[in-house]
Amino acid sequence: MKEFKIFAIVVILSGVLYWGIEPYAHTKLHPHTANAEYNFSKEDTDYAKHFLEQKKTALETAKASGNKASIDAATKDVEVAQKILDDYTAFWNDINSIDLTKGDATKGADTFVAAGCTGCHGIEAADMPASMDAETASQSFGVVPPDLSTAGKIYDERFLAALIKNPTMAVKLSHKFNDEHLYPMTAFMGAGGDINAEVADIVAYLKKVSADADAKSKITEEKVFADACQRCHDMKYDKKYTLGNKVSLAAYMGSNPPDLSMMIRSKGDEYLHKFINDTQKMLPGTAMPRVGLNKAAEDDVVAYIQKVGDKKKAERESTGLYVMIYFFILGIFAWLWKRKVWSELH
């Protein structure tokens, strides 16, 4: 009976530690963030509202302290946060006013060329190679402009429209790029017609190109990763390396983007989903742009990262179960042996 009491105490203490103390510590070290949101308009405005509320709370705290310098700084922060909310609200209202269902792929192909998009981007699936090789492009722009063969398949269509009209706002890098420090991709200024209709046409064209490419040769998880991530990140465990010049990339980003081989083990799939979906939500101020993937493509990227970085996951989990069963059986034999030994002593 004594052994069962000891066992019960160990179980209770372990439970308190595992379900009580550990989750509490986790909430302090890793504050809760909202799940990935694929309606980018809602995501940006909700996040901006949350950011504004944080700054208003900080202002109230500053006012309570009576410190003029703190109050002035907090007031300025509130004004900045309000401007961010106003800017994103206006931006997404404009994007959401575009009727993407009326996009004409044929017109979009002409507009794509007429607007000069081919000066930076290639579309291999449409026999339209990039005008510069990766090394030259990275030295010119800091990062290699993507080939857009799969863009219409892997990126959210509203994100594509937003990226075309105002790339800095779409990728959430207004804190890094401005009128004095320009983003490498320029905003689409139109090709002479209704700019919103032209944006819809370009999106329709990219979607058609990607659909045709996917029908011809299925776009794999590996291909999605290559097109969405490999311009900046290595995947050394799968012998995939950053396109272009790493020195230029480091100067552009502020530091060399990390190799992603073990990222699934260090961060986990939930963090990766949230981070890919909205980098600023998980790491405010980061130089990494929002990727803009739709849910299916994001799932493909995380699945590929897991496949490369955690190949033994299923084997590890099944082995862990067998080890637990082994120790359970061993514990029973140990208890029976103890009873036998002590019964002979008494």
UniProtKB/TrEMBL annotation:
Pfam family, one: Cytochrom_C
GO molecular function: electron transfer activity; heme binding; metal ion binding; oxidoreductase activity
Enzyme class: oxidoreductase
Domain Cytochrome c: 103-210, 216-309
Name under which the protein is recorded: Ubiquinol cytochrome c oxidoreductase PetABC, membrane-bound cytochrome c subunit
Membrane-crossing segments per the record: 6-25, 319-337
Classification of source organism: Bacteria, Pseudomonadati, Campylobacterota, Epsilonproteobacteria, Campylobacterales
Keywords assigned: Heme, Iron, Membrane, Metal-binding, Oxidoreductase, Transmembrane, Transmembrane helix
Matches recorded under InterPro entries: Cyt_c-like_dom, Cyt_c-like_dom_sf, Ubol_Cyt_c_Rdtase_Cyt_c_su_prd
Top-level taxon in the UniProt lineage: Bacteria
Gene designation: petC
EC number(s) from the headed UniProt entry: 1.10.2.2
